[in-house]
Every structure is written in C-alpha cells, then in structure tokens.
C-alpha cells in the first residue's frame, strides 16, 4: 500500500468536550446524491472510538503547505496533546459540531450514517451536512512513505 498515492487528510470529531483528529489517506467520495464520503481510521487505537460515539466527523483535505498539521495529527509525536495539535490550525464548526479546518483545500462536515469495523480499520460513512473550501493550492499527497505535492 505504500505505493498507493493518497490525498492526506485529517479526520476530526468532538464529543463531550473532547476533540480528536487523525491524519489519514484512506478516504473517498461514496455518493453525490445525497453527498456522502467515507474515511478509515485505525481500529486498534481505543481513542478512535470517539468517532462512533460522537455520531459525526469532518474530513479535511490538506494542502502542501500544511505538512506540519499532517505530522502533528499523525501521532508521530505522542507527547503532543490534542489541545496542542488543534492549536496549530484555525478551526470552525459548520453543521455537526466536528472541528473543520478553515483553510483546508476542502472540508466535509458529516453526520455519521454507518460505522463498520473491517479487519484493522473502522470505516466511517458520513452524509455531508456542510462544506467549506479554502484557496486553490497544491494538494498534499502521501506515497512511498513520504509527502509529495500535486
């Protein structure tokens, strides 16, 4: 899978005063009517259970100049707290209460409509309830275990 290029995104949620964000590349469009997307997060991390509990998530597509956010939310620095990670970006809420990155290339605020564990990952399928678009900039891609731009 390291040879499979993927757009780098941060999937986020909030529940009972706690925010969670995870860097992912496994995400895509599911439907355009109604608008739906899916995102996959690691099921072995117990902190990711918040995505099911909250009932919503945002999918934030990163630009090339947002590598610092991709690294922060990847868990490469386990000493960083969620508050420190979220402090690196400018966040807003649209419809569901999930944190949406204001200057993401595109951000999809979703109501969780289906949740399924498939082997090592949780598949989150969400109906898009809100959308925001940032400026046109080069996209951040992950391939061959490194970042690239497109």
Number of helices: 3
The top level CATH class name:
Mainly Beta
Find the structural class using helix and strand composition.
Answer: mainly beta
CATH superfamily: Electron Transport, Fmn-binding Protein, Chain A
Ranges with pLDDT <50 over ≥5 residues? none
Query: What's the domain count?
Result: 1
Write down the CATH topology.
Pnp Oxidase, Chain A
Using only C-alpha atoms, the radius of gyration works out to: 14 Å
From the N-terminal CA to the C-terminal CA, the straight-line distance is 19 Å
EC number: 1.-.-.-
Protein name: Flavin reductase family protein
Enzyme class: oxidoreductase
Organism: Shinella sumterensis
What does this protein structure show overall?
The chain has 150 residues and is mainly β. It has a single domain (6-149), classed as Roll (Pnp Oxidase, Chain A), CATH 2.30.110. Helix content is 13%, strand content 49%. It has a seven-stranded antiparallel β-sheet with strand order 3-2-6-9-10-5-4. The longest helix has 8 residues, at 67-74. The radius of gyration is 14 Å and the shape is globular. The model has no long low-confidence stretch (mean pLDDT 95). Its EC number is 1.-.-.-.
């Amino acid at each position: 899978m390291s040879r499979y290029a993927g757009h780098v995104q941060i999937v986020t949620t909030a529940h009972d005063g706690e925010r969670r964000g995870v860097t992912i590349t496994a995400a895509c469009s599911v439907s355009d009517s109604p608008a739906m997307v899916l995102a996959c997060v690691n099921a072995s991390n117990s902190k990711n259970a918040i995505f099911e509990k909250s009932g919503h998530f945002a999918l934030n597509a990163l630009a090339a100049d947002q590598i610092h956010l991709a690294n922060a939310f990847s868990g490469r620095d386990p000493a960083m707290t969620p508050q420190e990670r979220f402090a690196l970006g400018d966040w807003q809420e649209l419809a569901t209460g999930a944190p949406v990155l204001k200057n993401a290339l595109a951000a999809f605020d979703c109501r969780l409509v289906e949740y399924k564990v498939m082997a090592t990952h949780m598949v989150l399928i969400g109906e898009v309830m809100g959308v925001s678009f940032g400026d046109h900039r080069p996209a951040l891609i992950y391939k061959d275990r490194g970042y690239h731009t497109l």
